[in-house]
Amino acid sequence: MMSLASCPLVLIGAGNMGGALLSGWLKRGVPGASIIVIDPRPSDTMMGLMSEAGATHLTEAPKNDTTAGILFLAVKPQLMDAVLPPLKPLIGPQTVVVSIAAGKTLAGIEAYLGKTAAIRAMPNTPAMVGRGVTGAYANETVSEPQRSLVETLLKVSGPVEWVATEADIDAVTALSGSGPAYVFYLVECMAEAGRKCGLPADLAMRLARETVAGAGELLHQSPDEASRLRKNVTSPGGTTAAALSVLMDDNGMQPLFDKAIAAAKKRAEELAV
């Protein structure tokens, strides 16, 4: 897929998101020998994957004169201040830094690593099953070849959408980054409503889970807009229309989601450092 022999792909953190990326890269043909993973305590699964692929595993930043071609930061935001300083020797003129840590601005990263080509990306947890979506912003130092290469690497977990400003990443975080939790809570609410209508709790949960999973797959595969798919299910005067008259009321789901996502965006802005 690519040649990173002289300037390797360095992944910092092989947890849920980092591990999903690593697995996707190897499946898509990135040679393991070109990958360095720095993680003090990777899981047994990740250790096995790295060993089988021939990737290099380190518990800390290398002491030699290694220069990263791409430096992927996949650690929790609260760990970044401790993780970043030892990584500065890895930065060279051709390095592009990619951060998937929520709340850590490019300015905050550059305070430790210096001015460099850098990209902020916000994937979401369905990336762990190859069905995520990532919002990304590239600073002015990122070249088109670097941007294209990073997009290819991010696409192993799903589509990539580029935004015009770094501030837009806060909105991406609120919508798609946190979004899976909203969908999971929808399943909880549907199941509880089914239980209150008389269904056994376990049956109600199975029906809710499969309904949301199936509707998501239909949305994924269909060329139709979400509104068209909704209308296709809704017969005039029928049961779906009765439910939607409540959900689409002036006090229904839209104003509630407006408030919820605005609250998430505000919190993302507050956390930005």
UniProtKB/TrEMBL annotation:
Gene Ontology CC terms: cytoplasm
Pathway noted in the entry: Amino-acid biosynthesis; L-proline biosynthesis; L-proline from L-glutamate 5-semialdehyde: step 1/1
Entry annotated with the keyword Ligase: no
GO BP terms, alphabetized: L-proline biosynthetic process
Primary localization: cytoplasm
Record localization: Cytoplasm
Catalysed reaction equations from the record: L-proline + NAD(+) = (S)-1-pyrroline-5-carboxylate + NADH + 2 H(+); L-proline + NADP(+) = (S)-1-pyrroline-5-carboxylate + NADPH + 2 H(+)
EC number, UniProt record: 1.5.1.2
Tagged with keyword Amino-acid biosynthesis: yes
Enzymatic class: oxidoreductase
A matching Pfam family: P5CR_dimer
UniProt xrefs under Gene3D superfamilies: NAD(P)-binding Rossmann-like Domain (3.40.50.720), ProC C-terminal domain-like (1.10.3730.10)
Residue ranges annotated for the Pyrroline-5-carboxylate reductase catalytic N-terminal domain, each copy included: 10-103
Sequence ranges assigned to domain Pyrroline-5-carboxylate reductase dimerisation in this UniProt record: 166-271
Keyword set, alphabetical order: Amino-acid biosynthesis, Cytoplasm, NADP, Oxidoreductase, Proline biosynthesis
A single GO molecular function term of this UniProt record: pyrroline-5-carboxylate reductase activity
Binding-site residues for NADP(+), renumbered to this chain: I12, G13, A14, G15, N16, M17, A74, V75, K76, P77
Family membership noted in the UniProt record: Belongs to the pyrroline-5-carboxylate reductase family.
General function of this protein: Catalyzes the reduction of 1-pyrroline-5-carboxylate (PCA) to L-proline.
Annotated NCBIfam families: proC
Protein name per the record: Pyrroline-5-carboxylate reductase
Species for this entry: Agrobacterium bohemicum
Encoding gene per record: proC
